[in-house]
Amino acid sequence: MGTRDQLLERDLEQAAIADARAAAAGGHGQMLVVQGEPGIGKSRLLAQVRRPGQRIFTARGTEFEQCVPFGLVGQLFDHAVRDADGTALSGPAAQAARVFDPVAGEHAAANSELAVLHGLYWLTVNLCDSPMVIVIDDLQWADPPSLRYLAYLLPRLPALPLLVLAAVRSGRDADGPEVLRLLADSGVRVVRPGRLSAEATTELLDSTFGEPCQPRFARDAYEATRGNPLLVRALAGALLDKNVAPVDQNSGLILAHGHRTVAHLVTARLAAAGPVATEIARCLAVLGQRAAVPLVLQLAAPDRPEAADGLAGLQAAGLVELDAGHVTFTHPLVGAAVEATIDPVDLGRRHAAAANALRASRAPAEHVGAHLAKAPRGLEPAAVDWLERAASSALARGSVEGAFVFLRRCLDESLPADRRRELLVTASELALQVDLQTAADLTAEARILTADPVQRARLGLQLGRARGYLLDPAEAFAALEEARDETPDSAEDLRRQIEATLLVGVFVVPGRLHLQDRVPELAALPSSDGVGAKLLAAVIGAHQAAQCLPAGVERAAAALADGELIRTSNGEGPLVCGWFTLLAADERLALTSLNEAVAQAHQNGSVRSLAAAYCFRAAGHLWTGQLSDAEQDAREALELARTGRVDMDPSFAAAYLAWSLAHRGDLSAAEAALREAGVPYAGVPDRPVYYALTAWAELLLLNGRHNEALATARRAGQVWQTFGFANPALASWRSVAGLAAHALGDRATAIAVLTEELELAERWQGTRALGRVRRNLGLVLDDGELLAASVAVLTDSPAKLELAASLLEHGAYLQRTGQRMDARDQLSRALDQAEACGATPLADRARSELTAAGFRPRRNRLTGRAALTASELRVAELAAAGATNREIAQDLFLTVKTIELHLSSTYRKLGIASRAALRDGLLTG
Fold it and tell me: pTM for this one?
C-alpha cells in the first residue's frame, strides 16, 4: 500500500479504535470520538473499522441537515428499518417508528421526544443481535435530536455489543451545547490526532508527487500546511495541476497558496471543469453537500445533455464522489469552498429554488422547510404553508425543537393579524420546551393580539410560567396575578390553575409568604373535578403540610389518586407539591404515583416531566431506605438537568444524591455532589436550596465538624422558614442542629431544638419524622423509653432506614444498661435492616455493637423476600409471572444487564438457583 493510502503517525489512534472494537465485540459497548481540526485525517481513521461481513451503520452530519429532526438517525437506520421483517421496530422500539414514517406519529403527544429516544434505544438493542458498529462523521453538524439519541444511548452502551465511533471537529466548530455535553461525558473516550511531523509530511509529499521532494521544497511545504494531511495533499494536487516539480527552486510557488490550499485547488479545478460543472457543484453545496444525482442535475442543468459530463468532470477532478445514486463532496472543506463562491443574495434565491425542486420531487416536508428557512422572506408565496407542514412533520417525528424552528421562521413572513396570532400561540407553546426567553416574548405578543378573555388568561398563565422559569419572579407574579384578575367567572377551573401556580411560588421564590394568606379562602372553595381544582388542591395540601396540618394529606391524595395530573401537568410545580406532601406523610401512594409518572414520561412525556419524577422519586426511595435506587434516580435527574432543557433547580436532586451516598458510607462523593450544585452558598440564597443546605449540614456532622454543622443547620432552618416550611418531615434541620449541639456538649440547646421538633412531628404524625426525632431526643437524654418508642412507631412504617438507625441506638442503649439479650435482638434487627437498605456505616456499627456485647454477627443475616429491595422485588415478581429479561427491562425502563444483576442478587437472597424457583421462593421466603 502506498503512502497516499496509509495513515502516517496514527498508531496510537488505530490501537485505540482496535481496542474499542474488540471490547464491543465482547459485549462491552463503548463510544470513541476522534476529534481534530479539519483535514487532520479523522475520516480516514473512521474507515479503519470497516471489515468484511461486519454490520456497520454509517452517517455523516452536514450543516444543512442540522435543522432536520433525527436526520442523522435516519441516515443510520432507515435502510435497516425498511429492509427488516418488522422485528427491528418490535416492542418499545415501535415508539421510534415515527422517525422513519411521520404518519405513525401524527396522533402522538407533542412533547414526546423522550418516548422517541426510548424507542430508538430499543431499536438499537433489537439490531444488536450480533456485534455492530455505528460510524458517524462530522458529528459537530448532527441535528440536536440525533445528538440526544446518542446521549440517551451512552449510559446504556456498556450492556450492548456496540461500538459508536464518531469524528468531530475541534475548536469553535464543535462548541454546540449538545456536542460539548457529549464530549464531556465520562463514558466517552476522545482521541485527538496531531499534525504530521516534518518527516511524515515529506513522506506524504514524496508519495503524492511520485518522486522525492528536495529539502527546501519539503520544508516550505511543511511550513505552509503545518503538517495538516489534507492541506498537504491539496497543496501537492494544486502544484501538480500546474506541472510544478517538487524542487527547491519552486519553493516560492508554495507561498502563493499558503493556508488557502483547498480553496485554491477547488477554484482552479472548477474553472477547468467548465461552467456546467461549476453550477452542479454550487447546487450540491446548496442542497447540503450530499444529494440524489437526479435532483442535483434537475436543479443545476435541467434538460441539458452536457450535465452528465459536468458531473463526471467534477468526479475526475476529485471534488465529488458518486455512491448509490448520490453525489457527495470529497470533503466538507471542498463543499465550503464551493459555497464561498456563491454571492450571499444569490445563495438565498438558490435555497428557495431548492425548496421548490424538493417539493416537486415529494421530498419530506422538513427538507423543504429547511431550505425555506434559509430563503429570503417574502420570496416564496407558499413558504408559510410549507413551513407549517414541516413543523407538523417534525412534531410527528417527536421533535418539538424542529417544529419550533420552522414555526419561528413563519413569523418572519408578513401575515394577517389573526394568522399571526394563531402562529404565535402555537410557537410559544413549543418554545416553552426549547427557548424560554423566546417563549415569553412570543406569548407576550400573542396576548397583545388576543381579545378573548379566556384565551388571554391562558396566555397570561403561560407567560407567568415562562417568566418564572427564567428566574424573573417579579414579572412572573405580575403576569399570573393579571391573568387571574382577568379570568372570567365562566373559566373558574382556569382561575384555580392560575391560583395554584401562584401558590407554588411561595416554595421557590423568597419573600412571597404573604400569598399564604389566601390559602384559607381558596381551601373553602366548592369541590370540583377539574384539572385546575386538582392542581389547587395539591398545592393547598402542600401549604397545610408545610405547617404540620395533617388535613393536607387527604387533599393531596385526592388530587393525585386518579392519575389525571400525571397525564396533563407535565411535571408542573403543583404536581410536585402533591408528591412531597404524600412523601412527608409516608403515604405509599406517593411512590405509586411517581412510578406512574416515570412510565408516563417515557411513553409520551417530556424531559421536564421525567426530571421532576426522577428527582422526587429519589426522595421517596431515600426516605424508604432504598439507597441504591435513590442514587440512581437522583443521578438521572441531574443528568437531565444538565441538558439545559429542564428548569428544575439541581439542588434538590443533588441533596438526595448526597444523602444516599452518605448513608452508604461514601462521604467524599456526597460532598462532591453538593459542591457541584454550588454548596456551600455564599450570602443569602435566592433559590430553594433548603434541602441542599440541610444535606451539607448533615455531611459536616458526619465528618465531625460539629461547630460548622450547627451553624449550617441553623442557617438551613432560616432558609426553610423563608420559604414557608416548619414540618420536620420535610425540614430536618433541627435534628442535625440538635445532634451537633449534643456533640459540642451544649445539652440545653440540643434539648430545646429537638423538643421543638418533637412537638411539630407529633402535630404532623408522620411516622418517619416522629421516629427520627424520638430517637435523637432519646440519644441526648439517654432515655430508653424514647428510643423504644422510636422503634415502635417505625416498625410498620415504610421508613426502613430510620428503623435501622432506631433499632441500632435502642440496642446500643440496652447494651450500655446491661440488658444484653434484649440488646442482641435489637442489634440483630438493626443489622438486617441496615444491610437491606445498603446503609454500610449503620451495618458496620451494628456488627461492632454485637461484637462488643459478646455476640458473633453472621454475614448477610437477612434473607428471603424481606431482604429484597423494592427494585429487586419488582423485577422478581415480573420474572415469576413469566416475563423475559428483555420484557422486564422494557417495562421498567432499565437495561437488560441491570435486570440480570437484580435477578442474580434475588436468587442469592432467596436461596434459589434458577428462575423456575422464583415463584415458590417469593411465596415461602
Answer: 0.86
